[in-house]
Amino acid sequence: MRCAILAGGEGRRIGGNKPLKLFKGFPLIYLCLSRLLEVFSPPILISVKKKDQAEKIAKTLKKWGIREELFSFVFDEFPEVWGPVSGIFSVLKSLNESEKAVLITAVDQPLINPDYLRYLISLQNIFCNAFLIVARDESKIYPFPGVYPSWLKSLMLDFIKFSVKKSLFRLFMDLKKIGSIFFVKKTEANEENFVNINTERRLKELETCFSQRLRIQNM
Fold this sequence. Notes:
The protein has helices spanning 28-37, 51-63, 85-94, 114-127, 152-162, 168-177, 200-217; strands at residues 2-6, 22-23, 26-27, 44-48, 71-75, 101-106, 132-136, 141-149, 181-185. It is α/β, with parallel strands linked by helices. It has one domain (2-217): Spore Coat Polysaccharide Biosynthesis Protein SpsA, Chain A, CATH 3.90.550.10. The strands form two sheets. Strands 5-4-1-6-8-7-9 form a seven-stranded mixed β-sheet, sandwiched between helices. A two-stranded antiparallel sheet has the order 2-3. A hairpin with a 4-residue loop joins strand 7 (132-136) and strand 8 (141-149). Helix 3 (85-94) packs antiparallel against helix 5. The radius of gyration is 17 Å and the shape is globular.
């Protein structure tokens, strides 16, 4: 299965250039890519909207010792569409015919556990690519990390062209109606798999929490 990181958002709430923000001294894109390379064969796909985003990310990864052959970029087919929908569609469109699904995560999720990724892969194998697989609890859907089957691209293209509100939540509700989405219970996985760093305040809070946890574990 292929793997992709969504990294094309402007990241205004975190001060811009979200993939390059440092968490515990490391760029978010470096942390995410390193985690994914523990599970998936390269190249890891990186979804972006603009050429300058790709150039900055590539330069940063090279600086941190990530070889160019370990990642490749996918550019949004519909960059004017706000949110992750265009990035997901573009990643699916980039797959070749033999690739039946892709695991997609977001660049602001540096704490994902490789074991949870392997669990998602096992579900994909069990269901033979029949479902989009994401987690949920009683009040919220967690779209990343999630398994997105390649057949979804045709549905997503129509959704992008004709849906008035092109939100990921609306897409999920449409898929739920036709029985094409499988929800993992969020309680079955560690909370860290769903942590998003989308503001400067959140980043600082997590850095403090992470440091305190490490000190407790080392006592």
